[in-house]
Amino acid sequence: MGKMQQGTVGSLNEEVYSAVLAMPLILPAIAVIHKLDSSYATISDMNRFHRKLTTALVCSFLSCTCLALAKEPAKYPLIVREDFSAGSKRWKPTDGNAWRIAEHHGNRVYSLYQQSKYSPPYRSPLNISLLEGHRVGNFELHVRVMTTARDYGHRSMCLFFGYQDPSHFYYVHLGQKMDDHANQIFIVDSAARTKISTKTTAGTPWDDRWHNIKVVRNVDSGLIEIYWDDMEQPIMTAQDRSFPSGRVGLGSFDDTGNWDDFELYGSSIR
After folding, report:
1. Residues 6 or more apart whose Cβ sits within 8 Å of residue 87
2. What is the mean pLDDT of residues 1-11?
3. How many CB atoms lie within 10 A of CB 226?
């Protein structure tokens, strides 16, 4: 997958990006005009062809633009887009020695490659890397993830949000086999992690490929939704309003894996 521009991007840049996506369809069609012109017997026939071609090109352009813009949530502006091509300077891990920028099929990724040397104040994940400089209330988070851990029941990766400090935050545990401590949404609130999921699945079907994750948070209702590959139907939900805003992060409980193409939408609260 090609790298996207890193940093804060306005709506105008998104529209330009959409237009660029449409060009591979438009340019080849324009290129054949001169070859086809000579096949028409009259000027009238050629003009009718040009009108039809123009209509088709406009429809193609608008269709591609709509598909590209549909990726960005309508409700929230883009805060950060991170592809790790410039390193990991935006991120603060619990143990910097456990994380590194790695190459995967010629692509730079943020790799949690070993266990963090970190002791949380309460039973909760060990491997956490937080995005610096942004606290969010309502938000939508998109990211790609690939586990590099062995195949076992609690094979997992985690995402963190509403993070206040090491004793107060939410996280989702994407575990291969569901139980009270795996494949759930949790809260850490001055105590060991507590399950708050109202919906989950039998387990997260990990393999050795990349997967798309989306986390959606509505502070007013307390709704938390987790999506896996299918961005239309959440695989997990919860409802809690303990932490109305906070930082977001990537990591795992005690497994290894890679992250890439992180996008955060919402309103940044300084």
Report:
1. 101
2. 41
3. 26
Q: What is the pTM of this model?
A: 0.75
Cα–Cα distance between 107 and 153 in angstroms, integer?
A: 29
CA torsion, ordered 119, 120, 126, 131, to nearest 10 deg:
-120
CB 252 within 8 A of CB 124: no
Structure tokens given for 41? 């017997």
Residue 247 pLDDT greater than 80, yes or no: yes
